[in-house]
Amino acid sequence: MCVFASKDYDGHEDVIFHADSTSGLKAIIAIHSTNRGPALGGCRMWPYETEQQALSDVLRLSRGMTYKAAISALPFGGGKAVIIGDPRVDKSEPLLRAMGRFVDSLDGRYQTAEDVGTTVSDMDILRKETRFAHGFSDGTGNPSPATAYGCFMGIRAAVKHRLATDSLEGIKVAVQGLGNVGYRLCGYLAAAGARLLVADINRALVQKAAAEFAATPVPAGRIHRLDADVFSPCALGAVIDDETLPQIGAGIVAGSANNQLVRPRHGAALRKRGILYAPDYVINAGGLIDVAHEGRDYDSQKVLKQVAVIYDTLTDIFQRSDLEGLSTDVVADHMAEERFRKTHSWPRAAFAA
Q: For a tag site, which of 26, 151, 160, 324 has the least CB within 10 Å?
């Protein structure tokens, strides 16, 4: 396994591997950039089939956090952590405390929060070992509601740009994934009058969404193919590749999943097909914005007000894409890079929690 030769390396500042034999912890922390401030990104726990898969995931995710923080004008850089293991059977307090010590060893250059496979209560355990954990139960808690609200605002912006309407009444949205974010997003969409088609590997969640939101259940393998106005990927990433891209039936792709495009060329391919793509790290930035506000002065209304700016950011991206003839993901990258490519000198105090 070679880090520097990885196609996902992208000039990361640090990639740190760590194992704790007592707890069984095997983890990787990737720090992509600290130009704007300490690297902030969630801690994911997943049963990767290979260590190479874990490395690729953490590199892609940490890079995305740099761009997400920059496009959202937050004083943070990008980082991510992955724990190799099944959270349903391998997670334990000793393992989480070992992870907390791993995070703490970086002295604030990387700060973590919950992600796929970890929870608010897990962050409470990490907090016993490090002050560089966020999103715990006596803090802001679960950032998923803010992520879902930002995704909802992003869908509104995409519909306005593509379909020239401010209303979601009757708009068909195919939601892939009904986890913490996807299910809440369905609530916002249903309240706005959208017609929902939903898919998830958890049948109970699909049945619940059907009952609560009058949603139409769809097999997970078909959700992206549907003749809908919006395809909203809200599960794991890498959903748009050479196979699925020609099958997409919607004119808009706008969802909360990270790293939706397997390769950068897929953004251009979506544009060539006439599909409007809301860059993932822009539309799903609500959770990061929420965590960034954590502290004794936390104000949920201020958070939602800043999250709502996602609408304006995406509108700007869509307009620049039309004007410059570039895919929306490239335009978003250019906008973010203008902010984090500038070199800053951050004092050690800047990395305090």
A: 324
Domain count, the chain: 2
Residue with tokens 């959202």: 72
Rounded CA separation 62/60 (Å): 6
pLDDT surpassing 80 at residue 13: yes
What's the CATH code of the domain at 98? 3.40.50.10860
Which structural domain range is residue 119 located in?
A: 14-126
Q: Give the domain CATH number at 211.
A: 3.40.50.720
> What residues have CB less than 8 Å from 146, skipping those under 6 apart?
286, 287, 289, 290, 303, 304, 307
Reported as a single tens digit per residue, the pLDDT across 143-171 is 889 999 999 999 999 999 999 999 999 99
Do residues 135 and 143 touch, judged by C-beta distance below 8 A? yes
Q: Is 342 contained in some domain?
A: no
Q: Is 80 annotated in the active site?
A: yes
- The CA distances from residue 66 to 61, 75, 192, 294, in Å, are 9, 10, 32, 19
pLDDT of residue 353: 47
pLDDT tens digits, 185-234: 999 999 999 999 999 999 999 999 999 999 999 999 999 999 999 999 99
